[in-house]
TrEMBL record:
This is Metallo-beta-lactamase domain-containing protein. GO terms for cellular component: nucleus. It comes from Selaginella moellendorffii (Spikemoss). CDD domains: SNM1A-1C-like_MBL-fold. SUPFAM superfamilies: Metallo-hydrolase/oxidoreductase (SSF56281). GO terms for molecular function: 5'-3' DNA exonuclease activity; damaged DNA binding. Gene3D superfamilies: Ribonuclease Z/Hydroxyacylglutathione hydrolase-like.
Length: 243
């Protein structure tokens, strides 16, 4: 079982760079009184999706990033040195490759495996959102507490069968993505939506062959998150996708 210390990792990362060494004694400052409660795991110094000036400071060296969307990684830059960024492998590659954060400050964690970080047990499970998106399951043995932080999560019934999630039934708190948590929102399954888009474009392309017209299909996207749609269209319509 893997056991990590965010402070030790941060000290080594700081010492290997151009900045001042993080060696020697270390004392944490207190969390600000107005620190966003939903970005901190109770009983720990773990900060989740809090990398900007308001959340990143000397009160923590353990920062957890659920996924690579701008509203969650805001604050990351090549100059980042506040602490260690714990995330999935996909997200870690993007943080380093796209944002230029030094790899020394990024720790890519395996999925569905218990990892000890600062004497707490952390497990990453899929969030069914964009590539690399995860939910963090945190157990704090010192206090006998358990917490689930979903990040941006798209619920699917298969999650009820996930062994790691099942172990957290009855958790002390769930930090839940409630963007569409309202009965008025009824969405089809992700697979159904993707199939509908691909079928619609295929049907229009077949109609164009008969009418000798050509339509430019634009699929709105951002950094990551629409790959499944693009692949489905390319495979079903046997066409090239230009980005």
């Amino acid at each position: 079982m893997v056991a990590l210390s965010s402070l030790d990792l941060w000290r080594r990362a700081s010492a290997s760079g151009d900045g001042a060494s993080g060696g020697g004694g270390h004392s944490y400052s207190r969390f600000p009184s107005d620190f966003p409660f939903h970005k901190r795991i109770p009983g720990t110094r773990f900060v989740v999706d809090g990398l900007g000036a308001q959340c990143a400071g000397d009160w923590s060296r353990a920062y957890f990033l659920t996924h690579f969307h701008g509203d969650h990684y805001a604050g990351l830059a090549p100059s980042w040195d506040k602490g260690m960024i714990f995330c999935s492998q996909v997200t870690g590659h993007l943080v380093v490759g796209a944002l230029g954060v030094r790899r020394d400050f990024v720790v890519e964690l395996a999925m569905n495996s218990v990892i000890w970080i600062d004497e707490c047990q952390v497990t990453l499970v899929d969030a069914n959102h964009c590539p690399g998106a995860v939910q963090f399951l945190v157990e704090v043995p010192e206090h006998g507490t358990r917490f689930v932080h979903t990040g941006d999560m798209r619920f699917t019934p298969v999650m009820k069968e996930d062994a790691s999630l099942c172990n957290f039934v009855g958790a002390d708190a769930v930090f839940l993505d409630t963007t569409y948590c309202n009965p008025k929102f009824v969405f089809p399954a992700q697979e159904e939506s993707i199939s509908y888009i691909a079928e619609t474009i295929e049907r229009m392309m077949l109609q164009e062959e008969r009418s000798q017209q050509r339509t430019l299909f634009l699929i709105s996207t951002y950094v990551i998150g629409k790959e499944k749609i693009l692949l489905a269209v390319a495979e079903r319509c046997k066409c090239m996708i230009y980005v």
